[in-house]
Design goal:
The structure is a single chain. This protein is α+β, with helices and mostly antiparallel strands and about 425 residues long. It has 2 domains: about 240 residues, 2-Layer Sandwich (BirA Bifunctional Protein, domain 2); about 90 residues, Anticodon-binding domain (Rossmann fold, 3-Layer(aba) Sandwich). Helix content is about 40%, strand content about 20%. It contains 14 helices and 16 strands. The strands form 3 sheets. It has an 8-stranded mixed β-sheet, with helices on both faces. A 5-stranded mixed β-sheet has the order 13-12-14-15-16, with helices on both faces. A 3-stranded antiparallel β-sheet has the order 2-4-3. A hairpin with a 5-residue loop joins β3 and β4. The radius of gyration is 28 Å and the shape is elongated. The two termini are about 45 Å apart. The relative contact order is 0.12.
Length: about 425
């Protein structure tokens, strides 16, 4: 295998693409901060029990997908497969345990041992938020509205929002029995994964993508009807708030999300531009137990797959962020001119001007080729003759016009030129 290729399920991100990633990140920071969220950066790996207890031992993420290893002290560590558990671990040592609200956002790499596919990598990236410490239907609705605002801000205005309720933990037993009784009568006609889910986590059957299972799921009983009156009232308030905010949605009773910690509101955003893998973002309200904590920490949040957001932008024909304009390229003929140009470049960069220059001994023709390749608007040319006279030639690359400026005028002229762009 060629050593210049990254491992399967990972990718190198070069400058042109990285500009698009920064746009997703910068837009997230701008939108989320308007809602009172601040950035939180957590470690890329955590103690394994953070995810085992936070996500649930029976979830497929914990069972099948985590990258787990031991450190030199024999402690089990895991590369983070998602962002919520680490955020909650970080906040659990704060006053959030006393019901004080914390609003945070994050972005960065996550890791899951899945089969690589379009929009699904083993090292993938998410942008997400968590509103932690308080429980209210309007908080859920605001969080969903913020996600839609973010998608609109990056040009994804035609996505589809589906919502549902998971009730509360006390609703799980009667609803789960209702589903188990139904699927037990049909399990012989369902896929092997669903046969395992019937024993481990019956809720995941609702999310199966196999056609034979989908037909059986379509006739499943209305488990939400078995939820408590307060749970159904909570969801009704979320829907009413979304209506008031003008957020379009559909209620999907098959939407359960894949993690055990969800309660009350769950939601998912899909887009047809991805082909078979349509989900681009999702989340919901949760109660998450962490090591050493005797009561769960409540929160609501979402995460969006950044690779998938870029794919949707591509499908919509949304152009990537353009390369920044290069105002100035410094051409130096001779060691003294190169040193003078290096000094000038430092002065211009400190003034906020983007500059490139030739630092090796190269012919004038070769340097001009580099100027053209760089797309620079101006070329500043100096050799021994110009240094002796204390001047430089400034060439406008678009039309070839040249002017001669004194050394003392150069920095001011070039800075003014760059600021007018």
């Amino acid at each position: 295998m060629a050593t210049y290729t990254p491992p399967p399920g990972t990718a190198d991100i070069f400058a042109d693409e990285a500009r698009r990633w920064r746009n997703l990140e910068n837009t997230a920071a701008a939108v989320f901060s308007r809602y009172g969220y601040g950035e939180l950066r957590t470690p890329i790996f955590e103690y394994t029990e953070v995810f085992q207890k936070g996500l649930g031992n029976e979830t497929e993420v914990v069972q099948k997908e985590m990258y787990t290893f031991e450190d030199r002290g024999g402690r089990s560590l895991t590369l983070r497969p998602e962002g919520t558990a680490g955020v909650m671990r970080a906040l659990s040592g704060t006053d959030v345990m006393n019901g004080v609200e914390h609003r945070v956002y994050y972005y960065g790499p996550m890791f899951r041992g899945e089969r690589p596919a379009a929009g699904r990598r083993r090292q993938f990236h998410q942008v997400g938020v968590e509103n932690v410490g308080r429980v209210a239907p309007l908080i859920d609705a605001e969080c969903i509205a913020m996600l839609i605002d973010y998608l609109n801000a990056i040009g994804i205005t035609d996505a589809h929002l589906a919502i549902n309720t998971r009730g509360v933990m006390e609703d799980r037993a009667p609803a789960g029995k209702l589903l188990t009784d139904y699927f037990s009568r049909h399990i012989d006609h369902m896929c092997d994964d669903c046969k395992a889910r019937l024993e481990r986590n019956v809720w995941r059957i609702l999310d199966c993508k196999q056609e034979a299972c989908r037909r059986i799921v379509a006739d499943a009983p209305d488990y939400v009807a078995s939820f408590s009156d307060s749970s159904r009232a909570y969801f009704a308030e979320v829907c009413a708030a979304l209506d008031a905010l003008g957020v379009e949605y559909t209620v999907d009773p098959l939407l359960v999300r894949g993690l055990d910690y969800y309660v009350h509101t769950v939601f998912e955003v899909t887009h047809g531009g991805l082909g078979a893998q349509t989900a681009i973002a999702g989340g919901g309200r949760y109660e998450l137990f962490l090591p050493g904590q005797k009561k769960p920490v409540p929160g609501v949040g979402f995460a969006a797959g950044m690779e998938r957001l870029l794919m949707v932008q591509d499908a919509l024909g949304i152009a990537g962020a353009p390369a920044p304009v290069l105002p100035v390229y410094l051409v130096g003929l001779g060691s003294a001119a190169r040193l003078a140009n290096l000094k000038l470049a430092g002065e211009l960069r400190r003034a906020g001007v983007r500059v490139e220059l030739e630092l090796e001994e190269r012919s004038f023709k070769a340097q001009l080729r580099n100027v053209n390749k760089s797309g620079a608007l101006l070329a500043v040319i100096r050799g021994d003759s110009e240094l002796e006279r204390g001047v430089a030639v400034v060439k406008t690359m678009a039309n070839g016009e040249q002017v001669e400026l004194k050394d003392s005028e150069l920095a001011g002229y070039l800075t003014d030129f760059a600021r007018k762009l």
